[in-house]
Amino acid sequence: MKHRFSAFEICPAVCAAGENYIICVPTPVPVLMSVFIAGEEFTNDFCGVKISSTHVQKFTVPQALLDRAKKYTVVYEIIYREAYSSKKEAPVRENFAFQPIEKTDDIRIYHLSDVHGRKDPAISAAQYFGSALDLLILNGDISSSSQTVEETLLPLKIAFYVTKGQKPCIITRGNHDLRGLLAERIDEFYPLDHGLFYYSVYLGPIRIMVLDCGEDKNDDHSEYAGTIAFHKYRQKETAFIQDTVALQGREKPRSDRYRFVLSHIPFMHTDYDPQRGVHEFDIEQDTYSYWVKLLNDNWKPDFGLFGHIHRIGMIRGEAKFNEKGFAAPIVFGGKPLDDDVFGCAIRLKDNRAEISFNGKDCTPVQKCYIMF
Ligand SMILES: [Fe+2]
Question: Does residue 216 contact residue 230 with C-beta atoms inside 8 Å?
Fold first, then answer.
């Protein structure tokens, strides 16, 4: 062997997407890795060939299996891959407890977005609920670009430092995550549901529709130099929303106690000023208006949860930032400010949401309530 790699700390994040958890484990060196749950082995392979040279090992496991087992084991072997007779180091193994959302009420969610690289303040702010946290949501723009491996790994790193691999997370992508050298390889670093960043997910009594607007300007904007093609992607996403609301929107009674929409970009916002005319951020008006109508008429979320505009607080009804008329209360839950970042603590209990906004010292700076 020409050189030897060192063992490293296993830092998994258990991300909910669709009906599965995607267990994501950053790996600084080439490894063969497996996850074991209730005696079943899950491998990271492409059509039978195990993947070793990747920045993140990802394992898709059924939620129901891990929810029952409440523990999993990660095993890796550092590998020096050759055409024949590859060499391996001794296996490293670590067990993790897992706490699914089994409660039917009193669910505690912490939401962060737009951290823009403020790792330590973000981890501190997300301690708001302490060990009582049930779900962590990282809702895009956690870094300011996907230019480097370190930046692109930051959501998974924060997820691990907050949850220790023991609580479920949801990690979405923001528009800044689509910029930089690694943006075209972002599927290596993020949890997806069957290759897509939009999906719906059940966690205990909650159903969440996770939507993905992609970039915030049109595909032909000069800033992108022709590197993006989101218009058709959003059209496919419209079909997903249509299908989802058709399946779940007319359930009587609803099979979930709480339901909300999650998206980095608040697509109900039209940044139009008659004095100024059309703005470069005013995109996909017909598509986004139709999304709002589908959700209002057929899915009826209890609230919407968004980032991107660097604000914290809640609005209802017709207001600035809701020009398209999203019918449910809208929560903005991510605000970077100097060396701090403000996130949003949501407690769902007794058919209401108690929402607090806090920075790194975990002291609420605002509170609001939604009655369902
Ligand atoms: Fe953003």
Answer: no
- From the CA of 255, how far away is ligand 1's center (Å)? 32
Class at the top of the CATH hierarchy for domain 107-371: alpha beta
Give the distance (Å) from ligand 1 centre to CA of residue 308.
4
Instruction: Tell me: cis bond preceding 30? Omega within 30 of 0 counts.
Output: no
Instruction: Please check whether residue 313 is in contact with residue 343, taking contact to mean a CB–CB distance below 8 angstroms.
Output: no
Measured in degrees and rounded to the nearest 5, phi and psi for residue 237 equal: -65, -35
Domain locations in the chain as residue ranges: 13-97, 107-371
Which H or E run includes 287?
helix 285-294
pTM tops 0.85: yes
CATH number of 13-97: 2.60.40
Between the CA of 172 and the centroid of ligand 1 the distance, in Å, is 11
What's at 365, amino acid-wise?
Answer: V
Listing DSSP states for 83-140 in one string gives SSS-EEPPPEEEEEE------SS-EEEEEE---TT-HHHHHHHTTTTGGG--EEEEES
Question: What's the 64 CA to ligand 1 centre distance in angstroms?
Answer: 33
CA of 87 to the centre of ligand 1 (A): 44
Task: Quote the ligand 1 centre to 305 CA distance (angstroms).
Answer: 13
From first to last of its 372 residues, what are the pLDDT tens digits of the chain?
556 889 999 999 999 999 999 999 999 999 999 999 999 999 999 999 999 999 999 999 999 999 999 999 999 999 999 999 999 999 999 999 999 999 999 999 999 999 999 999 999 999 999 999 999 999 999 999 999 999 999 999 999 999 999 999 999 999 999 999 999 999 999 999 999 999 999 999 999 999 999 999 999 999 999 999 999 999 999 999 999 999 888 888 888 999 999 999 999 998 776 777 768 888 999 999 999 999 999 999 999 999 999 999 999 988 889 999 999 999 999 999 999 999 999 999 999 999 999 999 999 999 999 999
Q: How far is the CA of 307 from the centre of ligand 1 (A)?
A: 7
Q: Using a CB cutoff of 5 Å, list residues around ligand 1, an ion.
A: 141, 174-175, 308
